[in-house]
Amino acid sequence: MASTEVVSAVGSESRIGRSVSLDHAAELLGVSRRTIYNRIREGRLQTVRTLGGSQRVLLDSVQDVRGASTDPLTTRSS
């Protein structure tokens, strides 16, 4: 599903309201902070930058990753 998103000042504020710190995202997913950075790099987690320059993880992407990890169809067997 492709979409074009225009983020205004109001739009970015509402997105930041639905975000968590990297540490909180790691806690929610039960993984290390390093794993959060890896998942961001892989595109599995989406982030926003605050005006102060901090990186925050969008809560929707955390929930997507949580859902994917509990879905037996997407779980890899080694």
Please give a structural write-up.
- This protein is of the alpha+beta class and 78 residues long.
- Strands 1-3-2 form a three-stranded antiparallel beta sheet.
- The protein has a domain of 51 residues: Multidrug-efflux Transporter Regulator, Chain: A, Domain 2 (Orthogonal Bundle).
- Helices cover 50% and strands 13% of the residues.
Euclidean distance between termini CA atoms: 30 Å
Helix content: 40-55%
Largest sheet: 3 strands, antiparallel
Strand content: 5-15%
Strand segment count: 3
Number of helices: 4
Task: From the alpha carbons, calculate the radius of gyration and give it in angstroms.
Answer: 14 Å
CATH architecture of the domain at 16-66: Orthogonal Bundle
Strand order of the largest sheet: 1-3-2
H and E order: HEHHEEH
Principal-axis shape equals globular
Low-pLDDT regions = 1-13, 74-78
CATH class of the domain at 16-66: Mainly Alpha
CATH topology descriptor of the domain at 16-66: Multidrug-efflux Transporter Regulator, Chain: A, Domain 2
- Kindly state the mean pLDDT as a whole number? 77
Q: Structural class, please? A: alpha+beta
